[in-house]
Amino acid sequence: MEKDFILELDNISKSFPGVRALENVNIRVKKGTVHVIVGENGAGKSTLMKIINGNHQPDTGKIVYKGKEMVMKDTIMTGQIGISMIYQELNFIPELTVAENLFLGREPYVGIKSILNNKQLYKKADELLKKEGLSYSPYTKMKELSVSDIQMLEIVKAVSIDANLIIMDEPTSAITNREVDKLFDKIEKLKEKGVAIIYISHKLNEVFRIADEISVLRDGVIIETRAAADFDHDSIISMMVGRQITNIYPKEKVDIGEVVLKVQELCSGKIFKNVSFEARKGEIVGIAGLMGAGRTELSSAIFGMDSYDSGKIILEGREIKIRSVSDAIKSGIIMLTEDRKKYGLVLKRSIRENISLPNLKQFTRLGWLEIKKELSEVAQKSKELEVKTPGLDIAADSLSGGNQQKVVIAKWLLAKPKVLILDEPTRGIDVGAKFEIYRLMVKMAEQGMTIIMISSELPELIGMSDRIYVMRQGEIAGELPENEFSQESIMRIATGG
Amino acid sequence: MKSDEKAAATKISVIETIIKKYGIYLVLLVMIIISAIISPNFFDSKNLLNIARQISVTTIIAFGQTLLIICGMIDLSSGSVVALSGVLGVSVYMATGSLLFAILVGILIGAVTGIISGFFVTKYKMPPFIVTMAMQLVARGAVYLYTGGQPIYQIGDFKKLGQGSIGFMPIPVFFMILVAVCSWVILNRMRLGRYLYAIGGNEDASRASGIHVGSVKILAFVISGVFAGVAGVLLMGRLNAGLPQAGINYEFDAITAAIIGGTSFTGGIGTAAGTLVGAFIMGILNNILNLMNVQSYVQQILKGVIIVAAVAIDISTKTRKSKPVKM
Questions:
Q1: What is the DSSP letter of A473?
Q2: Which helix (H) or strand (E) segment is A88 a member of?
Q3: With contacts defined as CB-CB under 8 Å, which chain B residues touch A361?
Q4: What SMART domains does the database record attribute to this sequence (chain A) (predicted)?
Q5: Angle at Cα A278 formed by Cα A273 and Cα A280, nearest 5°?
Q6: For chain A, what percentages of helix, strand and coil (3-state, to nearest 5) are there?
Q7: Do residue A332 and residue A296 come from a single domain?
């Protein structure tokens, strides 16, 4: 039997200055199903969701919700008619308690809407948390929770409002596998209740686990909508990127030279201890480990963002002291941080200013900036990395995730690194952009750069590394040569099993 | 969409872009036209130079504030630093008879107060608001203590600094232009400027890009202090006395000029040209209101209203901008 549609999008188009974000998009979502939308960064997924959610208004086309044509005025209105959204970027107020956050904007009151009923608030929150199997107290402050706890809470919050349609934008980007299972159970239950879900994700494995229907969006156009069973991994990827990707890890044999970076007995309090490793010219060294194993802290110390207590860092045979980021940059050690928005970019400022920021000394003569030289070098680098933008004086804010990451890479390549540390370089970016970043890594290795890649995605580490170190509880717990790479061998060392 | 609708839409968006980009300049233009209509003498070169002379002291301070606000900070001590450096400049002149020496002492005092504020802001991570509010009290107290609360009169040729001219150009106006050019150069042609924008835009990312955030912040306070020092010497010259109570609340006029000129209070955005225009808007407003014999109490109310209106318009045009959103 044909199920009713809860949401029908009819010829939706939307343009922003200089960008055509969506073109004649038609999507129909049935009650009680999961409709997955996949597409590269910049394909228009978030814009589409924001149109459904009332954050943006479409230029043309109509939205039919529960059989009635509607104008989605704003998020308050869409919330009232039963649409709720889980954003990719977490929205919360750090000083609020879990309960206050859960019921933000719909707090229980005493009598007329004036005095908060705190007792009721915490009681309801406690019930909700227990029902959803979350162990923390409603009195915990948001800032004390981990990213994954917060993500789970966002999901609980969205579900607790009696929604008919839930939009989930990359809900699993920050949660553990066990929590993913929990989320998927929840989704199944919601489906039984007739709730429809629009689910956006880059993780194709997950997509196939829960999708009923899949739509592929590319450059603002729906390329294909089919039942999930009619798709397979490869067909989705090639539709998303519009070309065939034969091997998602374009690893090539590069001549590996002498040792460039040698770290000896590096210690920092309880965070990491006696860490020794080395990396060679042209080599891609992977660092694996569970969350909290000290990988990011170790590389931050080598990059001068954090301090270390003892131990040696030897670069090209000479011991160097790194007390600040600028020391590290001067010696040619560069790190791409995992949190692009916090540490990678000044979002308000232009692409040009961002790319040249750590490199301004190169463009300074007698204290004067040589703007022409800056422009030409920045333009060259951004062309080399194929940053997609209408111009270099556009705010970094307006780029998609993948393009922002390219801007960060351009900025650091201009600093001519000898050792490049990449911390989760492909987090939150889509298959196409990932592939480009892998290709860049190979190219950089070919040019004789030493690359150290920290990643939580084991296939990526295995696919790209020449050698992998595994960290556990702040120590290097093992080293694997290429012929011993496997997800099992890495996990065994990482978990101490 | 029909094609003429589309054309109309693009036309509107072109106008919108122009207003967004040059809004503040248009406001200045409108004010100049209104002034010219109200007062036939407005375009008299004397009147124009007079306006420039009147705004010079606060405008010089405003450039310091612009650099700081761009960097996500603020300096509430400028008015007091003006008094302290001006009075000390006067007494150095009385002792040595050298104007150059007096100016240098004014600059030095400004620089020292800047270093002290900058030190507490960077070393103890204190909010600039608090640190400079304290500095406001300390500098004001110091100048009262030094003078015993009494003005220094009969300052002789020192008054030339405020009242004299180089050719047709009043000396304070000359310094205002000099400071404006320095600020433009810092913001557009020097590394320091880029660092100020970057730190104001995202301090963490700036630190992770190898910028010595602390040094940049201290330097910004020093420059702001130096500008206040120069302003102090010029002001005492104009007043023809070393007045310890001079310059009270000047920082607010300066901040107002910077904000009206489009400097964003959240940091990372602002220009030297904008601040100059902001200062002229305030100056011309004063001028018109005086020419129209508006009572000074009413003037204050009007100024308050105009500040709110200017910023409200600025913010609403900026947020309406439908920038391409991440997809």
A1: T
A2: none
A3: 191
A4: AAA
A5: 160
A6: 35, 30, 35
A7: yes
Name chain A contacts of B10, Cβ cutoff 8 Å.
none
Contact B325 A401 (CB under 8 A): no
Q: Which residues of B touch A347 (CB under 8 A)?
A: 201-202
Phi and psi for A292 in degrees, rounded to 5?
85, 10
Tell me the two tokens of residue A462.
Answer: 């295995």
Q: Which of A45, A326, A400 sits opposite B212 (nearest CB)?
A: A326
Is residue A281 domain-shared with residue A226, that is, in the same domain?
no
| Domain-ending residue, one of A183, A209, A241 | A241
Q: Mark whether A213 and A332 lie in a shared domain.
A: no
E-only strand ranges, chain B: 165-166, 169-170
Please name the amino acid found at residue A232.
D
Domain count, chain A: 2
* Residue A394 distance to chain B (closest CA, Å): 10
* E-assigned strand segments in A108-164: 109-110, 115-116
d(CA A195, CA A187): 9
**What is the spatial distance between Cα B87 and Cα B99, in angstroms, rounded to a whole number?**
13
Model pLDDT for residues A341-388, shown as the tens digit of each residue: 899 999 999 999 999 999 999 999 988 999 999 999 999 999 999 888
- The answer on A201 and A287 residing in a single domain is no
Length of chain B in terms of residues written: 327
Domain hosting residue A270, numbered range: 259-495
3-class SS of residue A26: strand
Q: Can you give the CATH number for the domain in which A364 is found?
A: 3.40.50.300
Give dist(CA B261, CA B275) in Å, integer: 4
pLDDT at A280 over 90: yes
Phi, psi values for residue B326, rounded to 5°:
-55, 140
Nearest CB to B327; choose among A60, A343, A400: A400
ipTM above 0.90, yes or no: no
Nearest to A349 among B190, B197, B210 (CB): B197
What mean pLDDT is predicted for residues A108-130?
Answer: 83
Residue A113, domain member (yes or no) = no
Q: Which residue, B142, B139, B117, B119, is CA-closest to B130?
A: B117
Span A418-431, mean pLDDT? 87
In a domain, residue A397? The reply is yes
Yes or no: say if B111 and B118 are a contact pair by the CB < 8 Å rule: no
| Cα gap A343→B209, rounded to integer Å | 8
Asked if B83 and B245 touch (Cβ cutoff 8 Å), the reply is: yes
pLDDT score of B321 more than 50: no
Looking at domain B41-316, its CATH superfamily turns out to be ABC transporter involved in vitamin B12 uptake, BtuC (1.10.3470.10)
Judging contacts by C-beta atoms under 8 Å, the chain B residues touching residue A360 are: 191, 194
Higher pLDDT, A50 or A176: A50
Exposed e or buried b per residue across B75-95, where buried means at least 16 C-beta atoms within 10 angstroms of its C-beta: bbbbbbbbbbbbbbbbbbbee
Interface of A with B in 453-492 (CB under 8 A): none
Distances (CA, A) of B142 to B81, B90, B94, B104, B232: 10, 15, 19, 19, 15
- Distance in angstroms (rounded) separating the CA atoms of residues A348 and B202: 8
For residue A312, give the 3-state DSSP assignment. Answer: strand
The predicted model scores a pTM of 0.79
Q: Is the pLDDT of residue A2 over 50?
A: no
Longest CA–CA separation in chain B, Å: 79
* Helix axis angle, B3-38 to B296-320, nearest 10°: 160
Q: Which helix (H) or strand (E) holds A450?
A: strand A450-454
Take residue B190 and report the two structure tokens written for it. Answer: 């020097």
How many A-B residue pairs are in contact by the CB < 8 A criterion? 106
Secondary structure (DSSP) of B31-43: HHHHHHHH-GGGG
